[in-house]
Amino acid sequence: MPDSVGLSNFLFPAAAMKRVTRSKAAPRFSDDSVNTVNEMTTIFINYLVSSAEHYMQGSNRVTVTANDILEGIEGAGFGEMEPLLRRKLHEAQQRAQEQKNKKQATTAANASRDDGVNDDPSGGNFELEAGESEQEDITAYLVEYDPTPSPSPSPSAAF
Q: What is the biggest distance separating any 2 CA atoms in the chain, rounded to whole angstroms?
């Protein structure tokens, strides 16, 4: 009997993976290579979640935090990305707080009026979205980031 919860149940949408691969690399990727990137990304995310869970349990907590995930990234050998990721996390948290404050101000303003009409077109629903500048920052970082180690001099070159 086949396993009903396999890797294919957790893959990202193919169109999203194509956009990601094309934004970083060559404009043409074969479908097979996009599928491979998708599968490897899913495995890597599962590894990070497992690492984050390890840090959470080491702190005797029951909830994984963003710091646990950042620790998992560092533990996976991607510590050089941590400053950028911490900055982006801080910016996202600030935007979320601003949206929360805006929602509270709108709610307070509506409560002070007696007509009971909510003029907020979003219905009070605010979603955190990455702006173009944040996406450009991440893309620029990824373009600069080269995961291949720099070549070390061969032992025979020293003599």
A: 88
Q: What is the secondary structure of 57-108 as a DSSP string?
A: HHTT-SS--HHHHHHHHHHTT-GGGHHHHHHHHHHHHHHHHHHHHHHHHHHH
Which tokens belong to 110?
């509506």
Query: And the tokens for 41?
Result: 């990304």
CA–CA dist 73, 89 (Å, integer): 14
DSSP line for 103-149:
HHHHHHHHHHSSS-----TTTT-------HHHHHHHHHHHHH---SP
Phi and psi torsions of 60, nearest 5°: 55, 45
Q: C-alpha angle with apex 97: 55 to 101, nearest 5 degrees?
A: 150
What CATH number does the domain located at 8-108 have?
1.10.20.10
> Which pLDDT tens digit goes with each residue over 6-47?
777 778 887 888 777 777 666 677 888 888 888 888 888 888
Q: Which residues of the chain have pLDDT under 50?
A: 1, 124-129, 150-159
